[in-house]
Amino acid sequence: MKTEIRANWSHAILVCKKCQKRAKASFGSEGDPSLAKALKRRLPGGKGRKAKLGVIEVPCLDICPKKAVVLIDTRHPDSWRIVREGADIDRLAEELTSA
Fold this sequence. Notes:
The chain is of the alpha+beta class. The chain has one domain. Helices cover 24% and strands 21% of the residues. It is built from three helices and four strands. A four-stranded mixed beta sheet has the order 2-1-3-4. The longest helix has 9 residues, at 89-97.
């Protein structure tokens, strides 16, 4: 039985699942209620562990901003982002994929 599985991720984006549910906001031009799904659609390079980076929904991060979602880029764990409703998801996806 394998004890390790390789992924092609360079880093991961952690998105607060509770914030998404509480915000009742829409993200992106399609008005997606899930920031994680909106980001996955715009990020290049595949799905799942074969993608260039991972987007993972995590339990509550205990920030709980109103009408916004908290996300963490694992390359910069000291700087958490608050993404408000109506944010430019295409630009956010570009920032998250650039080095």
